[in-house]
Amino acid sequence: MGRTGAGKSSIVQLLLRHYKLADGMLFVDGRDVNTIPLAQLRGAIGTVPQDLFLFSDKLRANIAFGGRNGVADDAIARAAEISRLAADLEQFPDRLDQMIGERGVTLSGGQKQRTALARAVVREPKILVLDDALSAVDSHTEREIQERLRVFMKGRTTIVITHRLSAITDADLILVLEEGRIVEQGRHAELASAGGPYAALWKSQKLSEELARS
Protein backbone atom coordinates (compact mmCIF):
# COMPACT_ATOMS: atom_id res chain seq x y z
CA MET A 1 0.00 0.00 0.00
CA GLY A 2 1.02 3.61 -0.41
CA ARG A 3 -0.15 6.92 -1.74
CA THR A 4 -0.80 7.56 -5.44
CA GLY A 5 2.49 7.57 -7.34
CA ALA A 6 4.38 5.58 -4.70
CA GLY A 7 5.26 2.85 -7.22
CA LYS A 8 2.77 0.11 -6.32
CA SER A 9 1.52 -0.61 -9.83
CA SER A 10 5.02 -0.31 -11.27
CA ILE A 11 6.07 -3.38 -9.27
CA VAL A 12 3.29 -5.36 -10.97
CA GLN A 13 4.38 -4.11 -14.38
CA LEU A 14 7.90 -5.32 -13.64
CA LEU A 15 6.58 -8.71 -12.51
CA LEU A 16 4.74 -9.08 -15.83
CA ARG A 17 7.87 -7.86 -17.65
CA HIS A 18 6.09 -4.94 -19.28
CA TYR A 19 9.29 -3.02 -18.57
CA LYS A 20 12.87 -4.15 -19.09
CA LEU A 21 14.83 -4.67 -15.90
CA ALA A 22 18.37 -5.83 -15.20
CA ASP A 23 19.15 -9.45 -14.43
CA GLY A 24 19.15 -10.45 -10.77
CA MET A 25 16.61 -7.86 -9.58
CA LEU A 26 13.29 -9.75 -9.47
CA PHE A 27 12.73 -13.42 -8.71
CA VAL A 28 9.72 -15.76 -8.77
CA ASP A 29 10.20 -18.99 -6.79
CA GLY A 30 13.91 -18.31 -6.75
CA ARG A 31 14.13 -17.86 -10.53
CA ASP A 32 15.16 -14.61 -12.18
CA VAL A 33 12.09 -13.45 -14.12
CA ASN A 34 14.32 -12.73 -17.12
CA THR A 35 15.08 -16.46 -17.39
CA ILE A 36 11.41 -17.52 -17.38
CA PRO A 37 9.80 -17.72 -20.85
CA LEU A 38 7.38 -14.81 -21.16
CA ALA A 39 4.36 -16.98 -22.03
CA GLN A 40 5.07 -19.25 -19.04
CA LEU A 41 5.49 -16.30 -16.66
CA ARG A 42 2.35 -14.46 -17.72
CA GLY A 43 0.42 -17.72 -17.97
CA ALA A 44 1.01 -18.27 -14.25
CA ILE A 45 -0.32 -14.83 -13.27
CA GLY A 46 -3.93 -13.66 -13.07
CA THR A 47 -4.23 -9.87 -12.89
CA VAL A 48 -7.07 -7.46 -12.20
CA PRO A 49 -5.57 -4.12 -13.30
CA GLN A 50 -6.83 -0.63 -12.58
CA ASP A 51 -7.24 0.06 -16.30
CA LEU A 52 -9.27 -3.01 -17.17
CA PHE A 53 -10.62 -3.73 -20.66
CA LEU A 54 -13.81 -5.60 -21.49
CA PHE A 55 -14.86 -6.58 -24.99
CA SER A 56 -18.11 -5.97 -26.81
CA ASP A 57 -19.21 -9.57 -26.31
CA LYS A 58 -21.15 -11.78 -23.91
CA LEU A 59 -20.31 -11.70 -20.20
CA ARG A 60 -19.47 -15.40 -20.51
CA ALA A 61 -16.91 -14.71 -23.26
CA ASN A 62 -15.35 -11.86 -21.30
CA ILE A 63 -14.80 -14.14 -18.33
CA ALA A 64 -13.58 -17.06 -20.44
CA PHE A 65 -11.03 -14.80 -22.12
CA GLY A 66 -8.86 -15.31 -19.05
CA GLY A 67 -8.74 -19.07 -19.49
CA ARG A 68 -6.45 -21.26 -21.51
CA ASN A 69 -7.42 -24.03 -23.93
CA GLY A 70 -11.11 -23.41 -23.44
CA VAL A 71 -13.10 -22.88 -20.23
CA ALA A 72 -15.95 -25.09 -19.06
CA ASP A 73 -19.31 -23.55 -18.18
CA ASP A 74 -19.05 -24.70 -14.54
CA ALA A 75 -15.66 -22.96 -14.21
CA ILE A 76 -17.16 -19.73 -15.54
CA ALA A 77 -20.09 -20.03 -13.12
CA ARG A 78 -17.71 -20.68 -10.20
CA ALA A 79 -15.61 -17.63 -11.10
CA ALA A 80 -18.77 -15.51 -11.25
CA GLU A 81 -19.74 -16.77 -7.78
CA ILE A 82 -16.33 -15.97 -6.27
CA SER A 83 -16.37 -12.45 -7.75
CA ARG A 84 -20.05 -12.01 -6.67
CA LEU A 85 -20.95 -11.13 -10.25
CA ALA A 86 -23.46 -13.97 -10.03
CA ALA A 87 -25.48 -11.91 -7.54
CA ASP A 88 -26.20 -9.37 -10.32
CA LEU A 89 -27.17 -11.81 -13.06
CA GLU A 90 -30.88 -11.43 -12.33
CA GLN A 91 -30.55 -7.87 -13.68
CA PHE A 92 -29.52 -9.22 -17.08
CA PRO A 93 -32.20 -10.84 -19.29
CA ASP A 94 -29.65 -13.25 -20.76
CA ARG A 95 -27.61 -13.70 -17.57
CA LEU A 96 -24.08 -14.84 -18.53
CA ASP A 97 -25.02 -14.60 -22.21
CA GLN A 98 -25.79 -10.90 -21.81
CA MET A 99 -24.02 -8.76 -24.42
CA ILE A 100 -22.03 -5.84 -22.99
CA GLY A 101 -20.61 -2.87 -24.83
CA GLU A 102 -16.92 -2.29 -25.46
CA ARG A 103 -15.07 -1.47 -22.24
CA GLY A 104 -18.21 -2.64 -20.41
CA VAL A 105 -20.17 0.57 -21.04
CA THR A 106 -23.43 -1.16 -20.10
CA LEU A 107 -22.08 -2.23 -16.69
CA SER A 108 -21.58 -0.30 -13.47
CA GLY A 109 -18.05 0.30 -12.22
CA GLY A 110 -18.40 -2.45 -9.64
CA GLN A 111 -19.76 -4.90 -12.20
CA LYS A 112 -16.81 -4.20 -14.50
CA GLN A 113 -14.35 -4.90 -11.70
CA ARG A 114 -16.13 -8.10 -10.70
CA THR A 115 -16.14 -9.30 -14.32
CA ALA A 116 -12.40 -8.65 -14.50
CA LEU A 117 -11.92 -10.49 -11.20
CA ALA A 118 -13.87 -13.48 -12.53
CA ARG A 119 -11.64 -13.42 -15.63
CA ALA A 120 -8.54 -13.61 -13.42
CA VAL A 121 -10.00 -16.32 -11.16
CA VAL A 122 -10.98 -18.58 -14.07
CA ARG A 123 -7.30 -18.82 -15.03
CA GLU A 124 -6.59 -20.72 -11.79
CA PRO A 125 -3.35 -18.69 -11.54
CA LYS A 126 -0.42 -19.53 -9.31
CA ILE A 127 -0.03 -15.79 -8.65
CA LEU A 128 -3.09 -13.54 -8.29
CA VAL A 129 -2.56 -9.77 -8.55
CA LEU A 130 -5.35 -7.43 -7.45
CA ASP A 131 -4.49 -3.82 -8.29
CA ASP A 132 -7.11 -1.71 -6.51
CA ALA A 133 -9.48 -4.36 -7.85
CA LEU A 134 -12.50 -3.57 -5.66
CA SER A 135 -12.34 0.22 -5.46
CA ALA A 136 -15.76 0.61 -7.14
CA VAL A 137 -17.45 -2.10 -5.04
CA ASP A 138 -19.49 -1.22 -1.93
CA SER A 139 -18.09 -2.33 1.42
CA HIS A 140 -20.71 -5.07 1.99
CA THR A 141 -20.03 -6.71 -1.39
CA GLU A 142 -16.30 -6.30 -0.84
CA ARG A 143 -16.51 -8.30 2.40
CA GLU A 144 -18.44 -11.07 0.64
CA ILE A 145 -15.84 -11.22 -2.15
CA GLN A 146 -12.98 -11.27 0.36
CA GLU A 147 -14.55 -14.24 2.17
CA ARG A 148 -14.69 -16.19 -1.09
CA LEU A 149 -11.23 -15.11 -2.14
CA ARG A 150 -9.73 -16.35 1.14
CA VAL A 151 -10.68 -19.88 0.09
CA PHE A 152 -9.50 -19.36 -3.49
CA MET A 153 -6.17 -17.87 -2.36
CA LYS A 154 -5.10 -20.97 -0.43
CA GLY A 155 -1.99 -22.43 -2.06
CA ARG A 156 -1.48 -19.34 -4.23
CA THR A 157 0.59 -16.19 -3.94
CA THR A 158 -1.67 -13.14 -3.87
CA ILE A 159 -0.46 -9.57 -4.25
CA VAL A 160 -3.04 -6.98 -3.22
CA ILE A 161 -2.61 -3.29 -4.04
CA THR A 162 -5.24 -1.21 -2.32
CA HIS A 163 -6.14 2.06 -0.63
CA ARG A 164 -8.69 0.26 1.59
CA LEU A 165 -6.63 -1.18 4.41
CA SER A 166 -9.50 -3.45 5.46
CA ALA A 167 -8.59 -5.54 2.40
CA ILE A 168 -5.14 -6.43 3.72
CA THR A 169 -5.51 -6.85 7.49
CA ASP A 170 -5.06 -10.63 7.10
CA ALA A 171 -2.03 -10.37 4.80
CA ASP A 172 1.12 -12.33 5.67
CA LEU A 173 3.23 -9.28 4.83
CA ILE A 174 2.29 -5.64 4.21
CA LEU A 175 4.71 -3.37 2.37
CA VAL A 176 4.29 0.40 2.71
CA LEU A 177 5.77 2.37 -0.20
CA GLU A 178 6.76 6.01 -0.44
CA GLU A 179 8.41 7.41 -3.57
CA GLY A 180 9.35 3.96 -4.82
CA ARG A 181 10.90 2.76 -1.56
CA ILE A 182 9.68 0.45 1.19
CA VAL A 183 9.40 2.52 4.37
CA GLU A 184 7.54 -0.03 6.52
CA GLN A 185 6.85 -3.74 6.39
CA GLY A 186 5.17 -6.23 8.68
CA ARG A 187 1.75 -7.57 9.61
CA HIS A 188 -1.29 -5.42 10.31
CA ALA A 189 -1.20 -5.53 14.11
CA GLU A 190 2.43 -4.48 14.42
CA LEU A 191 2.17 -1.74 11.78
CA ALA A 192 -1.06 -0.37 13.25
CA SER A 193 0.64 0.06 16.62
CA ALA A 194 3.99 1.33 15.29
CA GLY A 195 2.94 4.97 14.89
CA GLY A 196 4.21 5.22 11.28
CA PRO A 197 2.54 6.01 7.94
CA TYR A 198 0.44 2.83 8.01
CA ALA A 199 -0.88 3.56 11.52
CA ALA A 200 -1.80 7.11 10.53
CA LEU A 201 -3.73 5.94 7.48
CA TRP A 202 -5.41 3.13 9.46
CA LYS A 203 -6.65 5.58 12.11
CA SER A 204 -7.87 7.98 9.40
CA GLN A 205 -9.83 5.26 7.62
CA LYS A 206 -11.36 3.92 10.84
CA LEU A 207 -12.47 7.46 11.77
CA SER A 208 -14.02 7.95 8.30
CA GLU A 209 -15.95 4.68 8.65
CA GLU A 210 -17.24 5.67 12.10
CA LEU A 211 -18.38 9.06 10.85
CA ALA A 212 -20.12 7.43 7.86
CA ARG A 213 -22.07 5.15 10.22
CA SER A 214 -23.08 7.92 12.61
Summarize this structure briefly:
The chain is 37% helix and 15% strand. It has eight helices and nine strands. The chain is globular.
Please describe what this structure looks like.
With 214 residues, the chain is an alpha/beta fold. It has a single domain, classed as P-loop containing nucleotide triphosphate hydrolases (Rossmann fold, 3-Layer(aba) Sandwich), CATH 3.40.50. It is 37% helix and 15% strand. It is built from eight helices and nine strands. It has helices at 8-15, 38-43, 59-64, 73-82, 109-121, 139-153, 188-192, 197-213; strands at residues 27-28, 31-32, 45-48, 57-58, 99-100, 127-131, 157-161, 174-178, 181-186. It has a three-stranded parallel beta sheet, with helices on both faces. The protein has a two-stranded antiparallel ribbon with strand order 1-2. Helix 6 links the parallel strand 6 (127-131) and strand 7 (157-161). The radius of gyration is 18 Å and the shape is globular. The relative contact order is 0.14.
